[in-house]
Give the backbone structure.
Amino acid sequence: MDNKYDAVIIGGGILGTFHAYHALELGLKVCLVEKDAYPKGATTQNFGQVVPSGMNTKWQKYGRESLRIYKEIQSKFDISIRQNGTVYLASNEEEEQLLVELRAINSGNDYASKMLTKQECLEKYPGLRKDYVVAGLFFPEEVTVEPRTMIHRLQEYLVAQKGLDIKFDFPVVSCESTREWVAVRNTKNEHVFGRKVIVCNGSDFKNLYPETFLSSDLEVSKLQMMQTKPQENYELKGSILTGWSIRRYEAFHECPSFTNVKKNEPKDSLQKKWGVHILFKQAADGSVILGDSHQYADANKIEDLGYDLDMDIDNFMIEEAKKIIDLPTYQIQKRWYGMYSQCKNSDIFQKTIEDNIHIVTGIGGKGMTGSAGFSKKNIATIFNTQKIKL
């Protein structure tokens, strides 16, 4: 019975790990299998911010539940959560109007936010250029994480305190259903058995169910990010999102002025070509992470995005960042790109195979913010527990 579980979760990223977390919360016996020696995909290569404020109304509910879960875990075990809030900085009257409208929407949703004057922004965020900012909108409940350490600490917590069984170096090659069990087999012909199997990794989905994968509407986004050298005697709290973020994030699509604002944008800018919106976040070592860009390809043509960093994109982002915040140094110590899959026509890809195999992937840029809350509802649905209200 040692290799038989109520739930086998395939994929050790943030989406898979929180599916495991909520299955454990229901008192189930859970095994999480990960193809690599440790998680190293999109979960570890993202910006590291939890910002329900940027989500549409539906997903903000998941994001706010995620915030609650993150904070609850952090109170018991350090997973690198820091609550310093999120600010959106408007650079002109159009963006300021969108902030006013988003403030009203969130007031109706009972989600705390506060408009900041230009002077309040300048006092709160050192180095912010007065020729850039006109106003800000601050969300005090939101948090940042250190993505390259958080997932490891979260899994350590689940193993030590919740009884999770994790098997690394476990590349899955087949899932075969019998009447009662799904046999999950790896490349070494080792097996684990689950009453339910949940596939939360796009690569495993592609290998296990290639025809379903090819018929999906999944696409891949490639994001370039950078990290400066540590900033001496400088502190920048929370997530700093700027005007291009205001024009991009889903939450603002619900603002009455959004359509007209988008109509006025230049169509052939480098910002649009590379999908750039400038963000800042200070890491634990004092360095500042900045980015990011977005380039897209169909999931079955991921090679079209290339495997190199485009230095023209990085240089463009640095020059634009300098127009917003004067950092003590813009010397870069690290550059990387992350890739995540998302759906063209839906929020997330979900498909059930043979009743007991559930594919859940393509959460896109919502992963760090939305996975904890979404997984709670999805596990309740898969295991037919009472309806959970978020």
About this structure: Residues 386-390 have pLDDT under 50 and may be disordered. The chain is about 35% helix and 25% strand.
